[in-house]
Fold this sequence. Notes:
Elements: H1 2-5, H2 9-20, H3 25-38, H4 42-53, H5 60-67, H6 78-89, H7 92-95, H8 101-114, H9 118-125, H10 136-150, H11 157-167
Helix pairs in contact: 2-3, 3-4, 4-6, 6-8, 8-9, 8-10, 9-11, 10-11
Amino acid sequence: RQYDTADNMTDRLAALTTLSLNAAPERERALADFYARYAADALVIDKWFSLQALIPQPDTLDQVHALTAHPAFSFANPNRVRALIGAFAGNQTQFNRADGAGYDFVTGNVLGLDRKNPQLAARLATAFRTWRTLEPGRRGKAQAALERIKATANLSRDLADIVERALG
C-alpha cells in the first residue's frame, strides 16, 4: 500500500526497498511498475538495478545475471555496471555464497571489463579486499577467484595492482 500511495519517487523507492526483502508476488509487480514509471531517468534506473542486486535471496545471482540482458543495461555504461555488478558485489549474503558462484560471477565480469575499462574492473575487484575475514570455505573460494584474476595474461596495471594488494 505504501508503494502504491507514495506521491514521490523517494517514498516509492523506500517502499520498494522494503518490499524487495520479501519474496512476494507484489515485489515483482512493484519492480515492473517502478521501471515503467522511471525508465526515462537514468539515475533512478541505476537505483532500480542496485536494489535488485542487493536482495538477500538465494535467487538473486540468477536475477542479476538475467538483468545483464535487460535492454536498459549495458556493459559500456560504467554507472550501470557499478549499479548492478558493483551492488551485487556488496550483497554480503549472495556475493559470499558458500558455493563460490558469487565470486565466479564478479570475477568473470571483472576479467571481461578489464580490456575495455580497466579502472572499472579494478574498482569491482576491490570487493575481494576482505576475503581474509571470511570463514575457511568462503575464504578459499575468494582467494581462488583472486588467483584466477592474477593468472590472467595481460591484466591492466589497475587491476593487477588491486589483486596484488588483496593477495599481498
